[in-house]
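User: Can you recover a sequence for this backbone? Please restate the input before giving your answer.

Assistant: Of course. Working from this structure:
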């Protein structure tokens, strides 16, 4: 960095000119690689502490939570069919897993806030105002995805699988296998329902545009059905559509969001 003479000095004193790379908010501090790792470790620990608190709170109401999770499935099972477990500790393990899931949901706003605190140092001061929308929208996307799976996708899947119950075939679902399928589907839908939030922030940062998303619509529809085929335990078109339909709807909703929130007067990213 060049040195320039101090104006009016007779002793030849020098000043270091200001760094052009300083942030607009005047902080001018940049984190080293080790500092990034330390910050990442700190945010992981804080997020896990929040989840632990959520797990303890959830375990205090575990019976109600278990009944809530199995409620929609019980209503679509054939008469007389009940969940079974074949290992001595299987039921207790299920309670622990459900406590972890419920605890993570309770701690979701806190976890999303920790994610924001980790990425915010790399943003400009005018971009840091998105902290509250980021936490709110990601949490709502998580809840809406879990709700869609709980009341629509998962019961529909169980109804389809239980339709083979009859004289020669008896449907006796194990609780561990059933909950594994429930959890897999819930996580998939929770991720899918984050799409509008992701597009909202990308459009705000002028990284994507409504025109670009619209031009890729046919690929998005194809990808939605591929994801539906991967996530669903069966390969039939009906269950595949149950998963693909919300992805397609959310994608085109995201196009509208990108068009509404796009920064005015700025050039949109080029369309290939």
């Amino acid at each position: 960095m060049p040195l320039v003479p101090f104006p009016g000095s007779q002793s030849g004193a020098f000043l270091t000119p200001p760094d052009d790379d300083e942030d607009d908010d005047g902080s001018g501090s940049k984190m080293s690689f080790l500092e990034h790792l330390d910050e990442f470790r700190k945010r992981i620990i804080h997020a896990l502490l929040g989840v632990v608190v959520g797990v303890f709170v959830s375990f205090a109401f575990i019976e109600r939570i278990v009944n809530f999770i199995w409620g929609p499935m019980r209503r679509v099972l054939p008469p007389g069919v009940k969940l079974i477990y074949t290992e001595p500790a299987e039921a207790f393990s299920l309670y622990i897993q459900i406590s972890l899931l419920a605890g993570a949901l309770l701690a979701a706003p806190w976890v999303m806030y920790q994610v924001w605190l980790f990425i915010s140092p790399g943003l400009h001061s005018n971009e840091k105002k998105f902290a509250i929308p980021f936490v709110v929208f990601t949490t709502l996307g998580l809840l809406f995805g879990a709700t869609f799976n709980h009341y629509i996708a998962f019961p529909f899947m169980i109804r389809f699988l239980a339709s083979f119950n009859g004289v020669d075939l008896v449907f006796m679902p194990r609780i561990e296998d059933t909950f594994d399928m429930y959890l897999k589907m819930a996580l998939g839908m929770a991720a899918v329902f984050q799409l509008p939030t992701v597009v909202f922030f990308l459009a705000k940062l002028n990284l994507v545009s409504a025109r670009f998303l619209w031009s890729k619509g046919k690929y998005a529809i194809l990808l939605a059905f591929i994801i539906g085929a991967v996530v669903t335990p069966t390969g039939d078109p009906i269950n595949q559509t149950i998963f693909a339909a919300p992805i397609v709807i959310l994608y085109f909703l995201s196009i509208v969001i990108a068009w509404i929130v796009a920064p005015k007067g700025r050039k949109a990213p080029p369309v290939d």
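That completes the design. Confidence is low (pLDDT under 50) at residues 8-28.
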